[in-house]
């Protein structure tokens, strides 16, 4: 009876059991998705505000689930990170994005930059450097066309180690950008210590444009970036008013629904062929 009682205790934690089960299910589903080639990349154009032209794109992953349809990254990236599956998934993203960018360059669409998101887990993967170098070599994409997007949280752990790794990444010839700038545990000190090339102003600040004082933050980030000789990209630009404001205040590039959401490769290529610009 006692033994049964112990077994029964499991039933008193149904939430935990179900959660654990759900995680195992999603983990194996993610593993299958990778094997079955169910992930796809969509691309969102980045535009230069002076020329008004597409100068690059951010690769954003989606899961083309046989039953659920198109699943947004917000629903699986966190779990992929926790389980470590983000490492093989991220490797797939990097290879696919670089190959695509090279193909578009070869098709005569000019020197396009490709931005790829890197999760903290990938950053602490010992083989990261070699993996990136290999992708660049195999795809033939000029390293200067690859931009790696990092988040501020990354700089919190072992600072000395992070600085060293970032310098090694830079030595490959690629560019480093800080994603969602201003939302993390921002510390200005890392801006001087880390070899960063680009700041991406988080869209929460962009949506504040036109609402009084709030836009002061946007202007300050642009000035900060330029004083540090960094390029600055505004993300989440949705309106003409936001665009005008950013242009007037010297922002370098924009990305957002105003010009285009992330789109499948075919649609992105059509945009390039049509020469669609701001
Ligand atoms: P993120 O890197 O900050 O990417 C920008 C997100 O904002 C994208 O959401 C994009 O679709 C969305 N967005 C772009 N323009 C606008 C706009 O004008 N208005 C609004 N409201 N949203 C806009 P998405 O594609 O759902 O990606 C969400 C997050 O998932 C990304 O945020 C990134 O953190 C993560 N993610 C996506 N792809 C990858 C990947 O390949 N690897 C890793 N590690 N993370 C990824
Ligand atoms: Ca990003
Ligand atoms: Ca972002
Ligand atoms: Ca974000």
TrEMBL record:
EAL domain mapped to chain residues: 23-276
Localization (cell): Membrane
Listed name of the protein: EAL domain-containing protein
């Amino acid at each position: 009876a006692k033994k049964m009682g112990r077994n029964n205790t499991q039933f008193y934690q149904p939430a935990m059991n179900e959660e654990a089960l759900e995680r195992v299910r999603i983990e194996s589903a993610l593993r299958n998705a990778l094997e079955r080639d169910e992930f796809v990349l969509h691309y969102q154009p980045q535009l230069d505000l002076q020329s008004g032209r597409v100068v690059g794109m951010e690769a954003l992953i989606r899961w083309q689930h046989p039953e659920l349809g198109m699943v947004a990254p917000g629903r699986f990236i966190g779990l992929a990170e926790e389980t470590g599956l983000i490492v093989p998934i991220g490797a797939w993203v990097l290879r696919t994005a670089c190959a695509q960018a090279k193909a578009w360059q070869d098709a005569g669409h000019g020197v396009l930059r490709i931005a790829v998101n890197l999760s903290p887990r990938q950053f602490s993967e010992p083989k990261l450097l070699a993996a990136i170098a290999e992708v660049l070599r195999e795809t033939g994409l000029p390293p200067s066309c690859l931009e790696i997007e990092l988040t501020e949280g990354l700089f919190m752990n072992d600072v000395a180690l992070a600085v060293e790794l970032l310098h090694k990444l830079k030595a490959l010839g690629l560019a480093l950008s800080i994603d969602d700038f201003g939302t993390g545990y921002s510390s200005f000190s890392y801006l001087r210590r880390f070899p960063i090339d680009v700041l991406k102003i988080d869209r929460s600040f962009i949506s504040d444009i036109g609402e009084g004082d709030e836009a002061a933050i946007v202007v300050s980030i642009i000035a900060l970036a330029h004083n540090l000789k960094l390029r600055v990209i505004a993300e989440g630009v949705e309106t003409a008013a936001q665009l005008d404001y950013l242009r007037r205040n010297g922002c370098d590039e924009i990305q957002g629904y105003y010009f285009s959401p992330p789109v499948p490769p075919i649609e992105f290529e059509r945009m390039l062929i049509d020469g669609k610009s701001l």
